[in-house]
Specification:
single chain; 24 strands; globular; alpha+beta; 8-stranded mixed β-sheet
Length: 592
């Protein structure tokens, strides 16, 4: 191929027997057998075993060279003995008998081994990320990421989409997470913002007359890190379409997601047609708008049961009078579980910070009875009503919790996951996608008690625009939707509000007067006034898609150069201080 190699480290097989070849790469492993020295040479493509005899003048030098030294070897392809064939690598039937070698790049002492999957601290891994990326698993993840993005691009082009690039330096938005700000040298005292998403620009693209847009878009948000969210920056597949309704977008996205996950994973896709779950149903049945549908457990509301006189569980009855609710989870065929199973879950709930998990089992002992600590407080008729509401049967058990609505939803969502793991109900070789739809347009801020947008302020409200009751904003639903897979939110999207007068009305409800809207969204509101088509879009997260495909729990495992939890790049020492001269150019003074 060139002066460094005739082949890569995954190409050679028995058909090259007795050929003279050259390979270049990193020394992955060495095994000294006295008269023979074996070394595995690794490059981006794979591994080839090489061998040198003690009689070779280069033997002693190669013997001393440390792992991860970059070398070029030249030699002859020989066939391995049958008992030494390595079926786990593409070149496992051959090895290279080294005649000569050359050091191309020397290495210092390694801070972490490359050939091992041993876990190291985040600090070491991120400081030496260039070494961490050589390790087999993460190297494979980054290659997978590249292939997924390339495949997505080709599919989007097949669907008739055009790829455009939107600006990185833009204006700050009052909605969403914190912006990253960039001072303007030419406009002292003013700042650009890095885009949290290309939201306004992709809408402007539709207003400009382009019909279908996509972009693998970098997005920047100054928010805290989580296992499924990188601090600082991430990438999303940004999509926008004109003259569409909600289902048109669903059709395209379902087609794309099915194609991507079928191509890059052997896992079963549970629903080819993604179920649609309203936001209110999701919060009731799963306690979250990010449900894991692999988990069959459902949550039911049992508050009204405690109005009955034949229910004597007074603790819950008193709490309900102070605006608490009761919700419950039924587990199927768990009557033979030991008492410790139930008590351990109750103990876990208390350690979590809840009041506990009350429980009993439905049994038939001369009539329906509740077997367990609180079963005696329920009559047979009340138990039958509970069974009817929850679809429980004799032999099933039920866990109950009482508290304020938000607290109970959050707790039982976590309890649902905990119980499913205890019962081993999750099929980890499955992807379960769903749409969460019918989000409320507004919500009440729990701190300020003011009305605010719940999701996306540029969304179209549902219903007849002529008859919407704007005096009851918390009743207004929007054409907003999320894709969720296995409990992870992959994407948010919406049908956009393309009517300026309607936008002013909705923003006013959230506390933005017309003057503020004109100032903060000048480009958007002005463009909408010149003939805007109905349009909508969505933006699946690339990082989270690859995380699911690679079966990783943390997004850093599929990100090439991630930051740590404190939004620091330990490898490049970023963020860093700048010189006084740079600050002066920008008209910035730092107060200490």
């Amino acid at each position: 191929m060139n002066k460094y190699r005739t082949h890569t480290c995954n190409e050679l097989n028995k058909s090259f027997k007795d050929k003279n070849v050259s390979l270049s790469g990193w020394i992955n492993k060495k095994r000294d057998h006295g008269n023979l020295l074996f070394l595995d040479l690794r490059d981006n493509y794979g591994v080839t075993q090489c061998v040198i005899e003690k009689e070779n003048s280069s033997f002693s030098e190669l013997e001393k060279i440390p792992l991860e030294t970059v070398i070029k070897i030249s030699g002859k392809v020989i066939e391995r003995e049958k008992n030494s064939i390595n079926s786990e690598i593409a070149t496992g039937e051959i090895e290279i008998s080294i005649s000569t070698f050359e050091v191309l790049g020397r290495t210092k002492e390694l801070p972490l081994p490359i050939f091992s999957d041993q876990e190291y601290s985040e600090e070491v891994r991120l400081k030496y990320r260039f070494l961490d990326l050589r390790r087999k698993k993460i190297h494979k993840n980054i290659i997978l990421r590249s292939k997924v993005i390339s495949f997505i691009r080709s599919e989007m082009e097949k669907y008739g989409f055009l790829e455009f690039q939107t600006p990185i330096l833009t204006s700050s938005s009052p909605e969403g997470a914190r912006d990253f700000l960039v001072p303007s040298r030419l406009n002292p005292g003013k700042f650009y913002a890095l885009p949290q998403a290309p939201q306004q620009f992709k809408q402007l693209t539709m207003i400009s007359g382009f019909d279908k847009y996509f972009q693998i878009a970098p997005c920047f948000r100054d928010e805290d890190a989580r296992s499924d969210r990188s601090p600082g920056e991430f990438y999303q597949l940004d999509i926008e379409m004109s003259f569409v309704e909600q289902d048109d977008i669903f059709q395209i996205v379902e087609k794309l997601i099915n194609s991507v996950f079928k191509k890059f994973s052997k896992n079963k896709i549970l629903y080819q047609k993604f179920p649609k779950i309203s936001y209110s149903d999701a919060m009731l049945k799963y306690g979250t708008d990010k449900p894991d549908l692999r988990n069959p457990l459902l949550i039911s509301d049992l508050t009204k049961i405690f109005d009955r006189e034949d229910v004597k569980f007074e603790i819950f009855k008193k709490l309900i009078k102070s605006d608490s609710i009761v919700r419950a989870i039924v587990t199927k065929k768990t009557k033979d579980k030991p008492r410790s199973f139930f008590d351990n879950l109750d103990k876990w709930a208390k350690e979590y910070g809840a009041s506990g998990l009350a429980y009993f089992t439905f049994v038939n002992e001369n009539g329906i009875k509740g077997k367990g600590p609180i079963g005696k407080f329920f009559s047979e008729e009340s138990l039958k009503e509970i069974m009817n509401i929850t679809s429980a049967e004799v032999g099933d058990s039920i866990f109950l919790s009482c508290g304020k609505k938000n607290e109970i939803e959050n707790f039982l969502s976590i309890a649902r996951d905990k119980i499913s793991k205890e019962l081993n109900l999750i099929d980890n070789d499955t992807f379960a996608f769903c749409w969460i739809i019918d989000y409320p347009m507004f919500e009440l801020d729990q701190v300020t008690k003011k009305i605010k947008f719940s999701h996306n302020p540029f969304s179209m409200p549902q219903g007849d625009l002529k008859t919407i009751d704007f005096t009851k904003p918390l009743d207004i639903k929007a054409y907003q939707y999320d894709i969720v897979c296995n409990g992870i939110e992959l994407s948010s999207g919406a049908i956009r509000n393309h009517i300026p007068d309607l936008m002013y009305k909705l923003f006013k409800i959230a506390g933005y007067e017309k003057k503020i809207v004109d100032e903060k969204f000048r480009g958007m509101i002005n463009a909408l006034s010149y003939g805007a088509p109905p349009h909508g879009g969505i933006a699946p997260g690339i990082d989270r898609i690859v995380m699911l495909l690679a079966n990783e729990k943390n997004i850093r495992e599929v990100t090439m150069f991630p930051m740590n939890q404190n939004a620091q790049d330990l490898m490049m020492n970023s963020p860093s201080e700048v010189t006084a001269e740079q600050l002066k150019e920008l008209n910035i003074l730092i107060k200490k």
